[in-house]
Design a protein that fits this description.
Helix content: 55-70%
Number of strands: 0
Structural class: mainly alpha
Mean pLDDT: 80
Distance between the termini: 15 Å
Strand content: under 5%
Order of helices and strands: HHHHHHHHHHH
């Protein structure tokens, strides 16, 4: 089991870029329901390197972080965004996220997610990420990138961050496909590593 040295810190404290990456990679992997081995297999990055990054040890190459982001189907920057970046983006993005997910985000669930994140407890932050993923899946959105984005966004800024990160992934994937009006097929349509069972 991974140790979570940077996850213990309160969200109100500034983290180093390695600390933010450590948290976000762990959140992304948990959101995808992958083990470190699954992520290593999908990305071509060794499991030992993934464990070091999640522990906040070392200084990974940008190319390594790019491989991890590509395997998780999220923009590279999403792995590097902390709370301040999510707050800034949330004020800029005019469309909060996929409408179905916004409708599924019940006020009681949002209150729970905020409580969990505000506690500063790493396990609670992971639970908030799981609730964000559950919200997207309940709304029928199963695209890997959107789900991973929701996990990270939920642990940073529940509600607005959940939806904004999912929307950001959707928009960037649409832009890459060359058709701004559509979203590429959901994850799972290609070959992916097996999901670990719950």
């Amino acid at each position: 089991m991974s140790q979570l040295p940077y996850m213990v810190q309160s969200q109100s404290k500034s983290l180093s870029s390695n600390g933010v990456l450590a948290q976000n990679l762990l959140l992304a992997r948990i959101g995808a329901n992958w083990t470190q081995h699954n992520l290593a297999e999908a990305s071509g990055v060794s499991r030992a390197t993934i464990a070091q990054i999640e522990a906040g040890i070392g200084d990974p190459r940008l190319s390594t972080v790019e491989l991890l982001a590509a395997a998780l189907e999220v923009p590279l920057l999403l792995l590097l965004y902390g709370r301040a970046e999510f707050l800034a983006l949330a004020t800029v993005v005019s469309t909060p996220g996929p409408e179905a997910a916004a409708a599924a985000l019940l006020p009681s669930k949002l209150r729970t997610m905020n409580y969990l994140v505000d506690s500063g407890n790493p396990r609670n932050r992971l639970e908030a990420a799981r609730l964000g993923v559950e919200t997207l899946r309940d709304a029928g959105l199963n695209d890997l990138g959107q789900v991973v984005g929701a996990a990270i966004g939920s642990a940073r800024l529940p509600g607005r961050g959940t939806l904004m990160a999912a929307r950001l992934v959707q928009l960037l994937k649409s832009k890459k496909s060359g058709d701004p009006g559509t979203v590429p097929p959901a994850a799972g349509s290609g070959s992916r590593p097996p999901r670990k069972s719950a």
